[in-house]
Design a protein that fits this description.
Length: 167
C-alpha cells in the first residue's frame, strides 16, 4: 500500500511539475518545481489496515524481522509469539505444538521447508517453532539462548513444516 502511495505521490509531482513548466513557458512567472516532498507530508502518520499489512507481509519480511533481532533474548520462551509477530499474523496459537496440530495450514514432514515456512520441533510440552530460510536453515528463538540462525537440525525431534503466512 505504501509503495502505491509513494508512486502516486511521485506521479503527481511529475505531473504538477510538468504543468508548472508549461505555465512558466507561456508567462513570465517564476515557479518552484513541485517535488514528492511537497505533496507527501513527511510528518504524516500513515496507518495501514490490518488487511493491508497482512497482504504486504512476505517471507523476506518475516526473515528480516528475525534477522534484525539477532541476539535478542526478548522472546525466550515465546517462539510462537515471535513467528506470529514476524509474519504479522492475525491468527494466534497458545503454543508452537498447538500451531502444529491445528488446521492452520497443511503439515509437511518431508522436504526442505521453503523460505518463510513455519518449522516445528517437539522439544517440550509446548513444542518449538522457527522460520525457514529456504536453504535448510532456520531463524528461531533459543539459538544459543537468543534469536539466531541455525541449521534445521540444531533442534532435536523435528516434526515438519507448514507454509508461512499472515492469516
Amino acid at each position: 500500500m505504501r509503495i502505491i502511495c509513494q508512486a502516486a505521490a511521485l506521479s503527481a509531482a511529475l505531473l504538477f511539475g510538468g504543468a508548472s513548466v508549461a505555465a512558466a513557458e507561456t508567462s513570465s512567472e517564476v515557479y518552484a518545481e513541485v517535488t514528492a516532498a511537497d505533496i507527501a507530508d513527511p510528518g504524516a502518520v500513515l496507518t495501514d489496515s490490518a488487511a493491508d499489512l497482512a497482504a504486504a507481509r512476505t517471507a523476506g519480511q518475516a526473515i528480516s524481522w528475525f534477522s534484525s533481532r539477532n541476539g535478542s533474548t526478548a522472546y525466550q520462551g515465546y517462539c510462537e509469539r515471535a513467528v506470529r509477530l514476524a509474519w504479522d499474523r492475525t491468527t494466534h496459537h497458545a503454543s508452537a505444538i498447538e500451531h502444529w496440530r491445528s488446521s492452520d495450514g497443511a503439515r509437511h514432514t518431508t522436504g526442505t521447508p521453503p523460505r518463510g515456512a513455519f518449522v516445528f520441533w517437539n522439544i517440550s510440552a509446548y513444542g518449538h517453532v522457527g522460520i525457514a530460510d529456504g536453504s535448510g536453515g532456520v531463524w528461531a528463538t533459543s539459538v544459543n539462548g537468543a534469536i539466531g540462525h541455525a541449521r534445521q537440525g540444531y533442534f532435536a525431534n523435528y516434526l515438519g513444516w507448514k507454509p508461512g503466512n499472515s492469516n
